[in-house]
Amino acid sequence: RKPVSLPRLADMHARGEKITMLTAYDATFAAVADQAGVDTILVGDSLGMVCQGRHSTVGVSLEHMRYHTECVARGVRRVQGTAWVVADLPFGSYQESREQALRNATVLMEAGAHMVKLEGGGWTAPTVEFLVARGIPVCGHLGLTPQTVHALGGYRVQGRAEADAQRLRQEALELADAGATLLVLEMVPATLARQLTGEMPHCATIGIGAGQGTAGQVLVLHDMLGMNLGRMPRFVRNFMEGQNSIQAAMAAYVQAVKQGQFPEDAVHGW
Ligand code: KIV
Ligand code: NA
Question: Which residues hold Mg(2+) (predicted)?
Answer without folding.
Answer: 45, 88, 119
